[in-house]
Protein: Endonuclease/exonuclease/phosphatase domain-containing protein
Organism: Peronospora effusa
Amino acid sequence: MELVLRLLPIYAVDLTTALSRLPQRDTTIILGDFNAKIGQRREHESFLGQWVRGRRNRNSHILASFCDANESFITNTAFRKRARNITTWTLRLKNHCIFNQIDYIICSQRTKKLFCNAQSWGGILTPSDHKLVTLDFDLRALR
């Protein structure tokens, strides 16, 4: 774990430190714009599902290391959705658009069974070029 912390940028180290201070029994959900195109799942990876968009970039390796080290799971890669409900950010160029998935909702591997849906939503009136990403979960599963 110490080696992983030395390789991660400061925000990932801070996030790992904050996460380690929380009680294990708590259900913790991390969400945000990670600017990471996580790409396709690799054979040994258990932190993401199969419904992703894009090829890995530098930030994706940071996010992958963080998730792997903290036994986390990227929930909005676990549910089969149309491309428009996977894409979270659009780069609008002169002649075309580039659609990416760079915003994620992350939970622990232990609690991923609580979640029943995650997706992005276009058409929300906000001053952002990012889409709203939501996560549905079943509190009855906590019993």
Notes: Residues 1-5 have pLDDT under 50 and may be disordered. The longest strand covers residues 115-121. The beta strands are 30-33, 72-74, 89-92, 97-100, 103-108, 115-121, 132-137.
